[in-house]
UniProtKB/TrEMBL annotation:
GO BP field: glycine betaine transport; transmembrane transport
Gene Ontology cellular component terms for the protein in this record: plasma membrane
UniProt name for this protein: Glycine/betaine ABC transporter permease
TM segment ranges: 28-50, 62-83, 89-109, 154-177, 184-203
Amino acid sequence: MDSSLWEQITDYFTTDTGAYLLSVKEHIIISALALIVSALLGIILGYLCAERKKYEKWMVSIFQVLRIVPSLAILFLLIPVMGTGFQPAMIALILLAIPSILMNTVSGLEEVPAFMLETAYGVGMSDWQVLWKVKLPLAAPLILTGIKTAAIEIVASATLAAKIGAGGLGSIIFTGLGLNRIDLLLIGGISVAVLSIAAGLILDSAEKWLFKYKFTGK
């Protein structure tokens, strides 16, 4: 790395540590909230699609279309309706993340073997017990895979939230673009990449802890 570029990066962390940590904090908060809300909505909608086939076609189609639309376009489409700031950024990220969770939930629930459901009902379980004790535990690995995909998409796309004043690491990147400063572009870009990798590693660890049988062969 060029010595002057390295000095610029060092100077940034020396003089703007507080601003950098605030951007990281904003990025983590908006990403975590968007992931929690999208996971709840995605699992509920996925369950409805699996249980009520008449909902599946149009619900999956709607979210597939939203997935095709670029995140930045969704953000700009929301500005006339909701203005700028945290709220429209959250909605855009949630709309981006729901499809992968929804479709993995549908696939996971549909792959539950019929004989296991018959056995569960045969021993006297109610619909609610079958859902919590049979369907969701068996579908959980696929659902978590969808959540992991969504988490990485959210952390990367939250960069665009800064474009409408929601803060986060995107503000460093857009400042770097405006001022043509490579040091800021590197700091913002590498930080987003590190957060994405960290989110993936955390969810990988959660998967290994929750579903030990998949990794131990027991």
